[in-house]
Amino acid sequence: MIGNELLDAGLGDADDDDFDLSEAFDSQLPDNRYLDRELSWLAFNQRVLELAEDPALPVLERANFLAIFASNLDEFFMVRVAGLKRRILTGLAVPTNVGRSPQEVLADISADAHALQLRHADAWTTQVRPALADAGIEVMSWDALEDDERARLSEYFQAQVFPVLMPLAVDPAHPFPYISGLSLNLAIRIRNARTGRQEFARLKVPPMLPRFVDVSRHGDTVRYLPLEELIANHLGDLFPGMEILDHHAFRLTRNEDVVIEEDETENLIQALEAELLRRRFGPPIRLEVGDDMDDLTLDLLISELDITAAEVYRLPGALDLRGLFDLAKIDRPELHFPAHVPTTALAFQPPEQNGRSDIFAAIRKGDVLVHHPYESFATSVQAFLEQAARDPHVLAIKQTLYRTSGDSPIVQALIDAAEAGKQVLALVEVKARFDEAANIVWARKLEKAGVHVVYGLVGLKTHCKLALVIREEDGMLRSYSHIGTGNYNPKTSRIYEDFGLFTKDEQVGKDLTRLFNELSGYAIEKKFKRLLVAPLHLRKGLLRLIEKERRNAAAGKPSGIRIKVNSMVDEQIIDALYRASQAGVPVEVWVRGICSLRPGVEGMSEHIVVRSILGRYLEHSRIFMFANDGDPQVYIGSADMMHRNLDRRVEALVRVVAPAHLKEITDLFDVAMSDGTSSWWLGPEGEWTRHSIGEDGKPLIDIQERTINAVQRRRRARAVR
User: What positions does UniProt annotate as the active site of this protein (predicted)?
Assistant: First the structure.
């Protein structure tokens, strides 16, 4: 039975009939073999912060990393911390792989998060803000402005800000107002001049207005004032006849995790819309306040918001540094990373200058591997679907959509194909976190155009990135397939690092045809030839591949495992890697975010190395490489090593077989794991150490810049030929 599964999964041959995983689990492993996943996530965000603190990076990119840190931490609280608290309050079991209670985990999260937020605030106040000022971009305080500047800003306030402000008093006739999640607010104490009574009011800083207001511009020198400071210095206009006693900024984070019992609802879309409405009113989980807030105001907020003192974050300087995303867009090329325009993959370059490439003809010549954003998404994935939409020989298009934009050319291509009379199936994952509302909107737009829209399987998110085009050629039907590691999103494709494989391989086409039929039907049960598919077969397939490397090492044969993922959390996969290491298998893990694996522990993981790379692009591809006694097996796809990806999502990995593609991926991994490449190294106790400067004092290799240059060199070499 196991041998048949290996054959069906493309993992083995008839000699594997006696293949049994049970003996691989005989060896004992210590109880404390995992790192805490939540603390590991905070360590990832610390690495983002270290980029913002790096004076060698362009200053506007440093501001952008500060904004990314803030946005990341918001989502961490809204989902991860909120989820832990919800499960504790409802009495549900809280998964923890580190032998500590959920309450202890929350206490550690709070301690680390408090320290990181203070460090984040300091990085802005003492490092990035002064560096911006040195470059001619000043973020001012009201007190530092000239009289004429204040006068102009007062006029701006009256014309553009005052009309949209909504001060809300709190008194016996006005209950404490609802505070929306992530909104920036002013808590204001005022005294009624007639009665002498002190009152409280809340004022929301309008999110639709620019966070940084122009003060002056002279060439490349620009000066800004934070919007909340402008408002705070005009409170008298909002409360005429009242004495302004004090004001302080505050910001609330709410539980915004969406929970739907799919097997108990008849209409997923209606249930999701109701849950999204409920999410707006989720319980508070974090209160950020200025460090100058008085105790009277703070006590009122804690009481009215029903929040604990441990959930209060006192921070110096400005709150909500997501606003720095706007500053980071300032058009000063010398303050950004050098401009990079993605090149068209060699296989898809038109034969004549200014000509149009025939995507299908290129794929017929052989598999095409594209590497975004170094190679263009627009001239590969987008062109593939647009050509399919207008090609009269194309009969059908089937595609999964997890995250994209409503104005996306991908969505438009599917609409154009349906309107041209082709059969079009779009499997839309409406449960993609924080994209739920947008996905519902454009899913309905697709339905109105005649696209067959399905929403996946009950209880599973469809996370795989698949597109299948059926084309009639010489009286026969031929399949053209795309399997990717990233979303079909033209916007994120410019900043997310991902791979995509185009192939006309008949077996891949059959695999995808069956998989799409099952996705639009009821269950994923069948096995596939060139794909590994979750939730039923991906975990098993990877465990067998890891175990095969362990056996090869034990037999003295060549062995090796290389894995690139966003997260390495799944205990069963980690234990399998530990056992492989115990047998002497060299294991290299390239992880962007969370890693619960402890490398370098004697007797358990001394043959495991873990590296992390962060930079101008977000490392997003997933790669699985196995030495296989000299016959390498390499897979790319959408799955991270997490419980949800392996057990509660539809994921797909495809095997890469072309020698040139195997070499390209191998070369990339060689550079990533080299001691001469800038990266963070994980230690056995969960500490990450940045290695960016060599012993000679020179910067180490930036793998992303190196890849940009390598792709451009290949294109120039092609042009010369």
Answer: 463
Asked if 556 and 630 touch (Cβ cutoff 8 Å), the reply is: no
Strand partners, 254: 284
Q: pLDDT (tens digit, 9 = 90+) per residue, 120-149?
A: 999 999 999 999 999 999 999 999 999 999
Distances (CA, A) of 286 to 311, 314, 355: 5, 11, 56
Q: How far is CA 397 from CA 461, 546, 579, in A?
A: 21, 35, 43
Query: Is 87 labelled as part of a ligand binding site?
Result: no
Amino acid at 311: E
The residue assigned the tokens 């056996």 is: 551
SS3 110: helix
The hierarchical CATH code for the domain 38-335 is 3.30.1840.10
User: What confidence tens digit (pLDDT) does each residue in 516-556 have?
Assistant: 988 887 666 777 899 999 998 999 999 999 999 999 999 99
Predicted confidence band of residue 28 (pLDDT cuts 50, 70, 90): confident
Quote the tokens at residue 288: 């950020």
Rounded CA separation 427/198 (Å) = 57
Architecture of domain 346-529: 2-Layer Sandwich (3.30)
How far CA 440 is from CA of 400, 454, 459, 680, 713, in Å, comes to 14, 11, 18, 39, 43
Residue 178, marked binder: no
pLDDT at 12: 37
Quote the pLDDT of residue 408. Answer: 84
Q: How far lies 677's CA from each of 616, 690, 702, in Å?
A: 15, 11, 6
Mean pLDDT calculated for residue range 281-293: 90
Check 463, 482, 537, 607 and give the catalytic one. 463
User: Residue 448 and residue 438: Cα distance in Å, rounded?
Assistant: 16
The pair phi, psi for residue 462, each rounded to 5°, is -95, 105
Reduced DSSP (H G I as helix, E B as strand, rest coil) percent helix, strand, coil of the chain, to 5 = 40, 25, 35
Task: Report which of residues 207 and 28 the model is more confident about.
Answer: 207
| In the chain, where the domains are located | 38-335, 346-529, 532-720
Residue 439 sits at φ, ψ, to 5 deg, of: -65, -35
Provide the 3-class DSSP secondary structure of residue 612: strand
38-335 matches 532-720 in fold: no
Say if residue 185 carries a ligand binding annotation.
no
Closest among 686, 526, 391 to 4, alpha carbons compared: 526
DSSP state string for 314-368? EESS-S-GGGHHHHTT-S-GGGSSPP--PBPPGGGS-SSTT----HHHHHHTS-E
For 584-602, how does the pLDDT look when each residue is reduced to its tens digit (9 = 90+)? 999 999 999 999 999 999 9
Domain 532-720: give its CATH code. Answer: 3.30.870.10
Look at residues 533, 485, 493, 521 and name the one whose alpha carbon lies nearest to residue 398.
Answer: 521
pLDDT band, residue 104 (cuts 50/70/90): confident
Cα(477)–Cα(130) distance, rounded to whole angstroms?
Answer: 63
Q: Residue 405 burial by CB count (10 A; 0-12/13-18/19+): exposed, middle or buried?
A: middle
What b/e string do you get for 70-84 counting C-beta neighbours within 10 Å, with b at 16 or more?
bbbbbebbbbbbbeb
- The CA distance from 228 to 220, in Å, is 25
Q: Where are the alpha helices (DSSP H) in 213-309?
A: 227-232, 235-238, 268-279, 295-305
Active site residue 463: yes
592 in a known ligand binding site: yes
Q: What residue type is 370 in one-letter code? A: V
The answer to whether the Cα torsion of 442, 445, 451, 456 is positive or negative is: positive
Position 76 scores a pLDDT of 94
Q: How would DSSP label each residue in 297-319?
A: HHHHHHHHHT--GGGEEEESS-S
